[in-house]
Amino acid sequence: MKTFFLSMAGAFVAMVLFVFVGFALLFGLILTAAGSKPPSPDEVVLTLDLNYGLPDQAPTGGFAAFSGMSGFTDILLKLKGAEQDESVKGIYLRGAMAGVGTSRAEELRTALKEFRASGKFVIAHTQGMYGMGGPSAYHSISAADEIWMQPGTDFMINGVTFETEFLKGLFDKIGLTPQIYAFYEYKNAPNSYNETAYTAPHREALESLATSIWTTALTDVAEDRGMALPAMKTLLESGPKSADQALEAKLVDKLGWPEDAEEAALDRAGENAELVDLNFYTAPPSKAKIKDGVIAIVGGEGAVVTGGNDTGSPFSEPPAFASDIVARAILDAAENEDVKAIVFRVDSPGGSPTASDQIWRAVERAKEKGKPVVVSMGSLAASGGYYVSTGADAIIANRSTITGSIGIFGGKFAIEGTANKLGITFDTVGVGGEFANAYGVAPFNQAQEAEVKAQLKRGYDRFLTLVGEGRSMTYDQVHEIARGRVWSGAQGKENGLVDELGGFMTALAKAQELAGMDTAELPVLAYYPQRKSGFEALEGLFGVSSETVRAAAVLSAVVGDERTQALIEDLAVADAVNSGQSMAMGPRLRER
């Protein structure tokens, strides 16, 4: 009995300590966040460091949701909102040294050109470009008024290269038999297992894709730098250059250190200008009202997978392109009477056909409810990423988006030979027909192989049928441009797989147009799944109700805690973001 009471006492003490430490951490986070909000300046220079990667869409779960981290699409929206903000004079960019992605560079360049057209300036600084990531490091900042480069560094822009590893030689040595079947010859993922080098169709597709992407980048940077395309091509293909040589060739405008470019941006903005991180900038609210109609934003990023229920753990978040989550988001948006259209942002290399089919059906249901669906393709929307897009009322892609790959593959690795080399043997007992052990360690027999290929052919045929229905094409027309081949967005437009070239903002305007809304103003936006406010994120992290956190914050404010009052204002902004009344979190400033 004594041991029992000691155990109970120990458990009680542990529980008290957990609650005490949890609330101490909770209020530490509150006070830290609140203390970072100084008054807003009258003259603002936005800042964005392209060396730090962003997800395409902002996270909705785990600790990342509490951080207020922006997604790339949020950055585009904030830049658009800043065009109408009189306090914003310009933006200071820290250029990436290793690339930001070809499609993302293209989309950011468009946003910067529109930002400049509104009367704002763009100053960019690079600490060197070292040839990794193709032309995207330069492409992403080429539209700036001024490009600064750090002395003593190198300017090297490589072309577009695809390098593939082939494992067949290794598999032959270790006795492993890959039985991966592709429909059809351009579906090149299995070639890594089945071949020792590129097949002719594989090489043809990659060379064509690389040429399209490289030409897009060359055309843009030549225009931005005021050069003829052949001259720019010669410069970028002639190898590395020192900073002095880059300046002489007019690839950059000035040499200087990051602080020099920063001071130049502040001086250009005005005597009292302050720097504001674009990730934490609050754009003026749109004049649009909910009664004018709401555009729902649904995002899918990463591999398309089945299921995806949220565990509720603050240390993890569900897959960003899980079929249950994305399909439910589309269906929920379609049920909202205020939502007039849906923008479905897709950034995915593909994944499960079953999961893709589920999401495709959700898009169809949304259309049946009278809600137009516009797909905005990000860096890539290939295979399953195209599958989920094909039924949309309109598909918008960047010129360098990787899309298509309408095809399918599957099979197994037969490891029996490898195991035998190690002295491991297998014996099998099975009932239930000849196919019962098809996915065991031994190679497929002739009948099993035929069944697997028939199953894959059915999947390919369904994929092509849905594409044909969505794109108003016959099966044979789709098959001619499909067969597993990847295309650039520009090539996809030529082949009828894409309706219009452009980025997220183009898709947003298209959704307004299809819904019969005024396109002159940014619409009210609603995110599905709903983005958590600061209070809701705290609830998820600590297991306390958002009402409890609000009450504690209000109580602290009543007794005169100015920092907590500032947090309440921040969280009110977060709530406004979720309701569509605002588009960004509050500013984080740096004094001059």
Polypeptide structure, described:
The protein is an alpha/beta fold. Helices cover 44% and strands 16% of the residues. It contains 22 helices and 20 strands. Strands 11, 12, 13, 14, 15, 17, 18 and 19 form an eight-stranded mixed β-sheet that branches. The chain has a seven-stranded mixed β-sheet with strand order 9-5-3-2-1-10-20, sandwiched between helices. A three-stranded mixed β-sheet has the order 4-6-8. Helix 13 links the parallel strand 12 and strand 13. Helix 1 crosses helix 22 and helix 8 packs across helix 9. The N terminus and C terminus are likely disordered.
Proportion in helices: 40-55%
Number of strands: 20
Give the N-to-C terminal Cα separation.
Answer: 67 Å
Low-confidence stretches: 1-9, 11-21, 29-39, 62-66, 540-592
Structural category is alpha/beta
How many strands, which pairing sense, and closed or not: the largest β-sheet?
A: 8 strands, mixed
Estimate what percentage of residues fall within beta strands. 15-25%
Tally of separate helices: 22
Radius of gyration: 27 Å
Mean pLDDT: 85
What's the overall geometry? globular
